[in-house]
Design brief:
- The chain is an alpha/beta fold.
- It contains ten helices and six strands; from the N terminus they run E-H-H-H-H-H-E-H-E-H-H-E-H-E-E-H.
- The chain has a six-stranded parallel beta sheet, with helices on both faces.
- The longest helix is centred in the first third of the chain and has 13 residues.
Length: 210
């Protein structure tokens, strides 16, 4: 019997902070340049996360780094500001025995690649679909369709895990199963979506999905 698929969001699921742009990136940039506005950072990040500009161009457009030091500024951000969920690695190692695992994330291409390599995520997942690589961001249906084509699987044999309702809705519309990862006090308002509060609960929840 062919293995079913589990597709994970990254920020807010594999990594603890969901709104990494506003909660992590904006404060980090403003430590370097206090006059750089939240709006400017978000707008330029959007360009980078759609692959319109590279990560080096991102830092240079913010005027917080240049050709000589952008990699240092970038590495300091990725190493010091982003925290992986310590439960994920062990749980994923167990799950991959019975499921195919994948990643579907809104992120800058170079940042996603660095984090996957740093934490050994490429050894756990079959593939990663990153918005900066494909030019679409969740909740655009196109990025979910790309993931389904890559997995070569019917939607009902795939579960998508995200920490935001708005990102689960298109997955459901396409026929995928969905699980909301609750990292805060917000409630899941989507019918027929199960919830988990930690990866320890995931395997048991999956048994109720199919």
């Amino acid at each position: 019997m062919e293995k079913k698929w589990i597709i994970f969001d990254v920020m807010g699921v594999i990594f603890k902070v969901g709104d990494d742009t506003n909660d992590l990136l904006v404060p980090y940039v403003q430590q370097i340049d206090k006059n750089c506005s939240r709006e400017k950072i978000n707008n330029i990040y959007l360009e980078a996360s759609l692959g319109s500009i590279s990560s080096s161009e991102f830092w240079k457009k913010l005027h917080v780094a240049d050709d000589d030091n952008f990699s240092e500024v970038e590495k300091r951000y990725l190493d010091n500001c982003l925290t992986i969920d310590e439960q994920f690695i062990d749980v994923a190692k167990q799950l991959k025995n019975n499921y195919n695992l994948a990643i579907l994330s809104n992120d800058v291409s170079e940042w996603g690649k660095y984090l996957r390599e740093k934490y050994g995520l490429n050894e756990l997942v079959k593939f990663s679909i990153i918005s900066g690589d494909v030019g679409y961001r969740k909740p655009s249906e196109e990025i979910y369709k790309i993931a389904l084509i890559k997995a070569n699987v019917s939607p009902e044999n795939c579960v998508f895990i995200d920490d935001r309702d708005k990102n689960l809705i298109p997955a459901q519309k396409l026929g995928m199963k969905t699980i909301r990862f609750l990292r805060d006090d917000t409630e899941c308002k989507i019918a027929s979506t199960m919830t988990i509060e930690s990866f320890i609960n995931l395997e048991k929840t999956l048994c109720n999905v199919w």
